[in-house]
Design brief:
Keywords: ATP-binding, Nucleotide-binding. With about 675 residues, the chain is an alpha/beta fold. The chain has five domains: about 190 residues, P-loop containing nucleotide triphosphate hydrolases (Rossmann fold); about 40 residues, no CATH class; about 90 residues, Magnesium chelatase subunit I, C-Terminal domain (Helicase, Ruva Protein, domain 3), CATH 1.10.8.80; about 180 residues, Rossmann fold (3-Layer(aba) Sandwich); about 40 residues, no CATH class. The protein has 23 helices and 20 strands. The strands form six sheets. A six-stranded mixed sheet has the order 17-16-15-18-19-20, with helices on both faces. Strand 16 and strand 17 form a beta hairpin. Helix 2 packs parallel to helix 3, helix 2 crosses helix 14 and helix 15 packs antiparallel against helix 16. It is globular, with a radius of gyration of 30 Å.
Length: about 675
């Protein structure tokens, strides 16, 4: 039996080498052991829910994913089936294969390598889920389904590079399919469902923004990788890469035996997986770890047990141990630990080790095998709980602290009445949710055709157009064309211009400004907005943070704001305006907003004219470009000579004294 299994692996590897492009061998990757282990565990147990790999540029994220596909064995599929159906599982056959079986036809079977399907950043909902086959519908008059990327990825790997840059709606769709194992399409009068089981791998660079916590929790495992610090290993990386580029086939042959042995381990682990022994003590330990780390829901408990079981199977053991659970916790918990939006999620390794050591010390007797209990355990009575006085829960109080309002008056901005991604953009081109059909605009190309709307518009005129011609095919004219009516949500592109001159030291203005900014960052994070920070002082203005979704970097930049020097306010407005104009050209659907924190007292010329006149000029430029603005006046003395209100009036901005953004004590 072992010989036949090895022959199958050898055949699989040879077919793979012929069918795929020249990829770097998985066994030749240097370091990044945690990433490689997370990928292998998802191969052993695809129900883990995929892996999210976070890391800086050039850390072998994409290389590792592509190399993984070479390790997977070939699969038996129905020949010419676009869904790559498994002929041995009738329940997962697509409707087309089921029709053949019901009609008594035999399904021809072939072996194919596992696919690695890339999901591009610009993917539309139709391309992901599938849509109506327009060509066949127009030729035959019948509605037919055209499979999408989820059909191509069935029984393979779905690779999503830069997943944090995808539209949240697209991320929701493929995460739903990964969790349920099926893709259900309801659109254009068509209802279609097919199996879609795949290994999900997402990669991202945290510097470009993070995923929403709700989406992060849907990934089974998460790994954060960094560049290798060892000189020896970095040199080895360079040597192997140069050798691969000089002779790809020769380099692959050097590592073929290691890859073949690893593929054999994966196949053995898959066969051993469901026979693994889980003890009651181990299940209780997993739940205690999840509660101690403050995770929400029960996904963490389930994923830890699955990952520990898969790791034990990969190591060739029949029993899951605490060491397996320790590794599983390092992969399952980092993206699930509770945190505030501006804090970085990190797993407390010391706390995890203490929990595992305390469990090891308290264990007694032989471990008992786990037996499932199919009933709900009654909740403990409230009478048995103890409470502590609220005063004991307070660690410290600052007598001068004031709570900052956690919102800004975005309702004064147009369009819409909600912040962030709540802004609804109608008639979005080729993306967004579909809300029926519409007539094309004058001169608009019919690139987003609504077939159902077009046929409905042409239906009342078919009898008169056919004029006795009974071939049954619809006759369409240009006036019948209808396009899909779409809309999608967009967010703010907000540039924050902060005065950090010497005048901000008086009356604790900079501390107040930072307090308002911290409260604002919370809202921007939740609404998935883009933020840039410009500061001006002495004779220069600089971009502390370019427009980005990474709000955590913004919080660090605000905390380190320097103070001192003169006030070149016009230079700060000029630089902030330039950032927003560039963003409008790149992303016309965004809503640009300029938020200025200053005491309104420019005293430094940037272009040779009067400082106040220069400031008024750029304030008018902000209004001319249609950029909405908010001026937060940090001047606390009503008798001071600041011209903040005049600057706001020329910008067409909303004028707010800074003390209006604080609740009374």
């Amino acid at each position: 039996m072992n010989e036949s299994r090895e022959d199958a692996v050898t055949t699989s590897m040879s077919l793979r080498m012929k069918a795929t492009e020249r990829t770097f061998p998985f066994s030749a990757l240097v370091g990044q052991d945690l990433m490689k282990r997370a990928l292998l565990l998802n191969v052993v147990d695809p129900s883990l829910g995929g892996v999210l790999i976070k890391g800086e540029r050039g850390t072998a994220k994409s290389t590792g994913v592509r190399a993984l596909a070479d390790l997977l064995p070939t699969i038996r599929v129905v020949e010419n089936c676009p869904f790559r159906c498994d002929p041995d599982i009738f329940e997962e056959l697509c409707p087309w294969c089921r029709e053949k079986v019901s009609a008594g036809q035999n399904l021809s079977v072939v072996e194919r390598p596992v696919r690695l399907v890339n999901l591009p950043i610009g993917t539309t909902e139709d391309r992901l889920l599938g849509t109506i086959d327009i060509e066949k519908a127009l030729k035959t008059g019948q509605k037919a389904f055209e499979p999408g990327l989820l059909a191509e990825a069935h029984r393979g790997i779905l690779y999503v590079d830069e997943v944090n840059l995808l539209n949240d709606q697209i991320v929701d769709l493929f995460l739903d399919a990964a969790a349920s194992g099926r893709n259900v399409v309801e659109r254009e009068g068509i209802s279609f469902s097919h199996a879609s089981r795949f290994i999900l791998v997402g990669t991202m660079n945290p510097e470009e923004g993070d995923l929403r916590p709700q989406l992060l929790d849907r990934f089974g495992l998460s790994v954060t990788i960094r560049g290798i610090d060892s000189v020896h290993e970095r040199v080895e990386i360079v040597k192997r890469r140069l050798a691969f580029e000089a002779d790809p086939e020769g380099f692959r042959s050097l590592w073929a035996e290691q890859d073949r042995a690893l593929a054999q381990r994966l196949r053995s682990a898959q066969e051993r997986l469901l026979t693994m022994v889980l003890t009651e003590e181990l299940l209780e330990l997993a739940s205690r770890i999840a509660m101690a780390m403050g995770t929400d829901g029960h996904r963490a408990d389930i994923a830890m047990i699955k990952a520990a079981r898969a790791n034990a199977a990969l190591e060739g053991r029949s029993t899951v141990t605490a060491d397996d659970l320790h590794l599983a916790a390092r992969l399952v918990l980092p993206h699930r630990v509770k945190k505030t939006p501006l804090e970085k999620a990190e797993l407390d390794e010391e706390k995890l080790k203490e929990l595992l050591q305390s469990e090891a010390g308290s264990g007694s007797g032989e471990p008992q095998p786990w037996v499932p209990v199919h009933h709900n355990v009654p909740k403990p009575s409230a009478k048995g709980k103890t409470a502590v006085p609220p005063g004991e829960c307070v660690t410290h109080l600052c007598p001068t602290s004031r709570a900052v309002l956690a919102h800004m008056p975005w309702h004064r901005m147009q369009p819409g009445n909600h912040p962030g991604r709540r802004f609804l953009i109608p008639f979005s081109q080729n993306s967004g949710a579909v809300h029926g059909a519409r007539c094309p605009m004058p001169g608009e190309d019919p690139v987003d055709l609504s077939l159902l709307g077009t046929l409905r518009a042409a239906a009342p005129y078919q009898v008169s157009r056919r004029n006795g011609n009974g071939n049954g095919r619809p006759i369409l004219l240009a006036q019948d064309i209808r396009l899909r009516k779409r809309s999608r949500k967009t967010g703010l592109s907000l540039v924050m211009i902060v005065d950090s001159s010497a005048s901000m030291r008086s009356n604790d203005r900079m501390a107040l400004t930072k307090g308002v900014i911290d409260a604002l960052l919370q809202d921007l994070y939740l609404r998935r907005d883009k933020l840039g920070i410009v500061t001006f002082r002495h004779t220069t203005a600089e971009v502390l943070l370019p427009l980005t979704h990474n709000i955590r970097d913004a919080a660090a930049a605000v905390a380190a704001l320097p103070v001192g020097g003169r006030t070149p306010l016009s230079l700060g407005l000029h630089l902030g305006l330039r950032l927003l104009v560039q963003e409008k050209r790149k992303n016309p659907e965004t809503l640009p907003v300029l938020l200025l924190f200053s005491d309104g007292r420019p005293n430094m010329s940037a272009f040779g004219a009067d400082p106040v006149d220069e400031t008024f000029h750029y304030a008018r430029e902000v209004k001319r470009h249609g950029i909405q603005a908010v001026f937060v006046d940090t001047e606390m003395d009503p008798m001071a000579g600041g011209c903040g209100y005049e600057i706001a009036r020329r910008m067409g901005a909303l004028y707010l004294p800074v003390d209006r953004l604080f609740r009374p004590r």
